[in-house]
Design goal:
Number of strands: 15
Number of domains: 2
CATH superfamily of the largest domain: Response regulator
CATH architecture of the largest domain: 3-Layer(aba) Sandwich
CATH topology of the largest domain: Rossmann fold
Strand content: 15-25%
Bound molecules: alpha-L-rhamnopyranose
Distance between the termini: 37 Å
Largest sheet: 6 strands, parallel
Length: 359
């Protein structure tokens, strides 16, 4: 049983720093928990900040899965960025969020001698040998959305601080249930690096005294599959009749959970928050199933990853901390610790602002 308490929705710098140090010190080797972790990272040669972006670059986007609106938007942003620098971008990938399926795609992209592969990893370790093979053939590797262990890539484009995402999800739900009662998490796949890292911070947030009357009773996995996520939600309510709230930090999970709740007697009573796209969640905010949830702009995430891949493949950057490059409409960006670039803080959506967003 995990019990914790609530602090105002402000992230203390000292806490942030302490946890960052902790994660870095741990070397990010735990399965599924390397997002932003440290460790041995390949370098992509010597960078020349004045090198021009090469024309005709071939850059491939390999999402967790292709039939997920989140990645459709992200990869459209990515291929738009590649087009802006006169390259050829494409999206390829499996229809299920599995690492073994991704390995076949990586091998094909390597044979095609793409200039860069941009991947959201379904497992932090399983795709690494294939990515290492790609890098040994001169291909630059960027992870976006969901990281690998550091030796699997040159740069990781992260959507937001993993710690802020995890803590803010708990804070959003705690406010809605009055800091009291049983809660569950409906996640994506059990090995997803991004979700597992966020869940680690959720558990840490829940360990604070202000959440002492909240209890995390279960972490369920919907595998980023709509039907499975729907059934897992149904199962949670059946197994835990006193459940007060659910956090689903996946766009597939939160939409499926909302659909289940909206057609059930729990609508509006069992609170649901998570990470969702405004277009998928709008009807559930309007019908009172969901009060508030959050997300970054997936299109900007893909766009930033596209520019990062082009800068790497042109020798402008190598992945070292402090290197700067131009990311088109997102302006100048700097590579941070462990080869990580952060897009920016997410937006919280509710009935007052959801109509202002269309993605
Ligand atoms: C799903 C995927 C993705 C995650 C979003 C929030 O689309 O699991 O990796 O970042 O949700």
């Amino acid at each position: 049983m995990i019990r914790f308490s609530s602090r105002p929705a402000v992230f203390g710098l000292a806490v942030t720093t302490a946890l960052t140090v902790l994660v870095t010190a741990c070397g990010g080797t735990t399965k599924g928990e390397v997002q932003g972790g440290g460790g041995a990272r390949p370098t992509a040669g010597k960078a020349d900040p004045n090198a021009p972006i090469k024309k005709g670059l071939k850059i491939a986007f390999l999402p967790k899965q292709v039939n997920n609106p989140y990645f459709t938007i992200a990869d459209k942003g990515g291929t738009d960025a590649v087009a802006e620098v006169d390259g050829t971008g494409k999206e390829v990938g499996p229809s299920d969020a599995s690492a073994s399926s991704q390995v076949s795609y990586i091998n094909t992209l390597t044979q095609q001698q793409q200039d860069a592969i941009v991947i959201s990893a379904n497992d932090p370790n399983a795709v690494v040998p294939a990515l290492k093979q790609a890098m040994s053939r001169g291909i630059k590797v960027v992870t976006y959305d969901s990281d690998t262990t550091p030796e699997g890539r040159h740069v990781f484009v992260n959507q937001a601080s993993a710690e802020d995402i995890g803590r803010s999800q708990v804070q959003l739900l705690a406010k809605q249930i009055g800091y009291k009662g049983e809660i569950a998490i409906l996640s994506a796949t059990p090995n997803a690096t991004n979700q597992n890292t966020w869940i680690k911070y959720m558990k840490d947030e829940l360990s604070k005294p202000e959440y002492k009357d909240m209890e995390l009773v279960k972490v369920a996995y919907g595998n980023d599959d709509d039907q499975k996520s729907f059934q897992e939600t149904q199962g949670l309510l059946k197994s835990y009749p006193n459940l007060k709230g659910i956090i689903s930090p996946t766009t597939v999970g939160v939409a499926a959970a909302a659909r289940y709740l909206s057609g059930s007697p729990y609508k509006g009573k069992v609170k649901l928050t998570g990470l969702g796209t405004p277009n998928q969640m709008r009807k559930f905010v309007k019908d009172g199933t969901v009060e508030a949830f959050e997300l970054w702009k997936p299109g900007d995430l893909g766009y930033l990853a596209g520019y990062t891949a082009a800068a790497l493949a042109s020798g402008q950057i190598s992945g070292a901390e402090g290197e700067k490059f131009n990311a088109g409409r997102l302006g100048e960006r700097t590579i941070g610790k462990n080869g990580e670039i952060i897009l920016g803080p997410p937006t919280v959506f509710d009935k007052d602002n959801i109509n202002d967003f269309d993605f």
